[in-house]
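A favour, since you know our structure tokens better than I do. Go ahead and set the record down below.
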Amino acid sequence: MEEASVGGWVEREREGQGDVERAPDFNRYIHTRTLSEQDIGLGDPDRRVILVGDLHGMNESLHDLLTSLSYNPSADTLIHVGDLVQKGPMSGSVALLDFLASKRIYGVRGNHDQPVVQWRLWFNWIEAQKGGKEWLRDIERKHRRGELNAEEKRAMKKRKGKWWSKVPKGWKMFGVHYRIAREISDEHYDYLVSLPLVLHIPSQHMYVVHGGLLPYNPKRPMDHPKQPLAHLPSLTSRHVGSVNMDEEEMRVAQEVELLTKVPQNTDPWVVMNVRSVTDSGKITRKSKKGTPWTKLWNKTVKKCAGFDVTARKGKKRDELPCMPSTVVYGHTASRGLDVHRWSVGLDSGCAHGRRLTALVLSGAELASSLQASSLAVDGNLTSDALAVQGDDYPIQHLEDDEDDEQDNRDEDDDDDPDWDDEEENGKKPKDATKIPFGDDGIGRLYSVKCHTK
């Protein structure tokens, strides 16, 4: 953490340990962090993991949800799916980061968190240079008062001049992410920059990401020998000299290969932004274009038939030598709560005044194979059939809006004019919605109504 901190970088520059004029790495990506069984505690039947959808500064809604779940930090592990800021109130973003940073809550970096990280480090880079702090304060004051002259506006637009040329192409000066980056503390920045793109939880064969993951490289056939799920996992240095790996080790090795050998899964932009895949194999943020990545994931993972499939008689032609894994993600409010057998999308539009949803996993229920098998409906559940505790209506899919792809800095407008809040017309369910989760366990979905000001 210290290496990534704003203060640490500035001090090194001042002490002459770096070239203050050279632009630093504004991204500071951590691709994957692995959480052990001890980290999440689900080996204990009395422990829970609470995964929450996109928060977007909705601090009060988060605490309403945690209160309704009787959240206990000593017994529960809280995990978020990213997009902590923007859309909601500025004060909410700051309060939310206060809570998450002080408690060291696990989570991943979202596409709206990323430009805040970038701007924050940019501020410190500019201010570490001679005359930079004075220029930045002067230009911010003029912008705030509407006093930028035509020449300054032209220089800002064309990125010309000593200082304006230092603003990276595509970044929106004085925009919402800029303002949030100005408002947050060093502790908030350190927390944001510490968030990985992917949380891998091998004990539950689960990934947590913001945007999504692909089960294979769509530029090649699914059964191509370079596809991780098309062959048995490779021996790692840890297993060299051993006769073989047991099934659990093979599963984890294959899960790691999905992250490292599918090119799209190594691309930070894809992991934070993907919504669909076009017929030509291109990744897009547009919900209406191409095939949802979750459809590819579930269709592929459904073909996993175990590591002995190649030697088994009566093997189906499309079976793959792999074991299934689950992705929990956010990012796509336009699809609403999107629950399938091997993927769970938790962005239910809280920042738009809809709901904040949590997936709750308990150590006891993840061991309940009988309950899980009785919940399966053709190996898949859609959100059209789900009701959530506190809801007065069934959760619905939302028609997708076209999202602007420009530079990942324009707001994702996931609002749908046809959304119909039917709270007064529905029936209140008696319990949280149960869904099959993992190999043979169950999860529970809860939500609270979000109130925007």
